[in-house]
Design goal:
The chain is an alpha+beta fold. It has two domains: 9-76; 92-121. It has one helix and four strands, in the order ββββα. The chain has one helix at 94-120, and strands spanning 9-16, 21-29, 52-61, 67-76. The chain is rod-shaped, with a radius of gyration of 36 Å. It starts with 8 loop residues before the first strand and ends with a helix.
């Protein structure tokens, strides 16, 4: 916020439509000077997980009633994360080949057992 007036403003309210609200923050903002939340010694963070538009209204004032207000709007667009699947967790065809050979051996064995059983009956 910039003080474009001719008196020092010493108290500040910050109203954020997404979350952070501060009231009565003491900081002398002289005529022609600028301030932001860092200058006020404040750390304000917000975790954004979706597209968001945020509006902040900053009011600077004196206890006697003089005040100034400024607002700002910012938008954050959440970038999609690209995901690719390069394999199914198998680096080589060896496990699949082993499975096929095992199944074939089981089928041959089952066939032999059934043939022998039919010969015994």
């Amino acid at each position: 916020m910039e003080n474009t007036g001719n008196i020092t403003l010493s108290l500040h309210d910050i109203m954020d439509d997404v979350g952070t609200n501060l009231s009565g923050v003491a900081y002398d903002l002289a005529p022609g000077a600028t301030a932001d939340t860092v200058a006020l010694g404040l750390t304000i963070s917000e975790t954004v997980t979706t597209d968001t538009t945020n509006t902040v209204v900053w009011t600077a004032y004196l206890v006697t009633g003089a005040s100034a207000t400024a607002s700002s709007t910012a938008s954050v667009t959440e970038a999609p994360t690209a995901v690719t699947l390069s394999s199914f967790g198998v680096d080589s065809p060896a496990p699949l080949l082993l499975l096929v050979v095992t199944l074939a051996a089981l089928l041959v064995g089952l066939g032999l057992l059934l043939r022998r059983r039919s010969q015994l009956l």
